């Protein structure tokens, strides 16, 4: 009998949550950039690599930061900035949901103690 040695344990399961943007590595940011800013990835992917842009750094970028990175074309910068804003919003929503779940758990925990 041959055992399946594929990395099935590394595959995301239905209920697994995506990795937090705050814990993204430079490689994770490259994947995000390739997926969400594919029109500009070839031009600017190396800039993000050279500046070691991690997920935490990505969320802190703004229009001026992108300009200092070397993205001088206004249209390109605005498109990338728009994707970063979407990512920030998605991240904020996930954090709010986590807080709500935590509050709901704590309220039910307090109820059982009382």
Automatic annotation (TrEMBL):
Domain of life the protein comes from: Eukaryota
A Pfam family assignment: SAM_2
GO cellular component terms attached to this protein's record: cytoplasmic side of plasma membrane
Protein name, as recorded: SAM domain-containing protein
Residue stretches making up the SAM domain: 24-90
Gene3D superfamilies noted in UniProt: Transcription Factor, Ets-1
Gene Ontology BP annotations: cell surface receptor protein tyrosine kinase signaling pathway
InterPro entries (UniProt xref): Aveugle-like_SAM_dom, SAM, SAM/pointed_sf, SAM_domain-containing_protein
Biased composition (Polar residues): 1-11
Region (Disordered): 1-20
Coiled-coil zones: none
């Amino acid at each position: 009998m041959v055992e399946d040695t594929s990395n099935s344990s590394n595959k995301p399961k239905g209920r697994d949550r995506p990795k937090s943007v705050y814990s993204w590595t430079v490689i994770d940011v490259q994947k995000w950039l390739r997926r969400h800013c594919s029109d500009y990835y070839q031009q600017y992917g190396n800039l993000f690599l050279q500046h070691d842009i991690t997920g935490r750094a990505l969320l802190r970028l703004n229009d001026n930061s992108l300009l200092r990175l070397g993205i001088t074309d206004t249209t390109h910068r605005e498109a990338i900035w728009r994707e970063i804003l979407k990512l920030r919003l998605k991240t904020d929503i996930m954090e709010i949901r986590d807080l709500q779940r935590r509050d709901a758990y704590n309220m039910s925990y307090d109820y059982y103690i009382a």
